[in-house]
Amino acid sequence: MRLVELSFRRGAAVLAAIGIAASMASAPARAQFSLAVSPPRFELSAKPGERLREVLELTHSDVRAGAYKFKTADWSLKPDASVDFSDDLQPASCRPWVAIERRELSITPGRPYRFRFEVAPPADTPPVECRFAVMIEGQQPAAAPGVPIALGARIGVIVYVAVGDVAPVLELAGASVQQVDGRAAPVLRIRNTGNAHGRLAGFLTGTDAGGTALELQASTTPIMAGEMRDIALLATKPGDTETAVAIRFPITISGKLEWGRNGSLPIQQRFVQ
Question: What is the CATH number of the domain that holds 143?
């Protein structure tokens, strides 16, 4: 079966979404049209002139067959970490390198479908991070609980492809206390001077105003190349990384966060509310 070479048109409409953009999730993405998609994100690498092939596993869980449409989209990450998708081809987009298996598909219940896509960077491509999304939309309107009208539902699966020698370079540009999900939290401002996205990983240790020992984990929100982003630190009790706790400020935090293959970011900060 040939893959469909994508073409693009200006001004394509974007449907209202009641599904989710699966860029940050770690579990299979789900939308109201009873579709599970795995994996929810791809982080790949390729050489110029190389054809890279990957597979999405799609599972339709309704009792009836599901009809879906497929396309690609450009995307950007907003300050609140939500994703903006664009059908229009953006400047420097790598979507012309992308081919998908088909534009429309009917999936029978209970039997996963392996949906293929390819990325083929031209042989003369300089080092760059290619970013796009594979968009999956229900062909029939989907009803959401408590919503009196049917809306279009879609899932966006984020794909990163490192072409050549690219990497993030993360550095600390500032620190503050901000409201995060209704609670005061220490926040690190991170600058990425590299040519690929990066994420912080690992745990820091802290002692709050009451002398309570805490562990703090950085949000895994990506920091795009050339951008600066606020990364919140989630406080938990040592040994219980699942339950967030309130911080009594001021708090002193120290340790080291990892990024990329070998990068690390030493942290020694006092946060005052």
Answer: 2.60.40.10
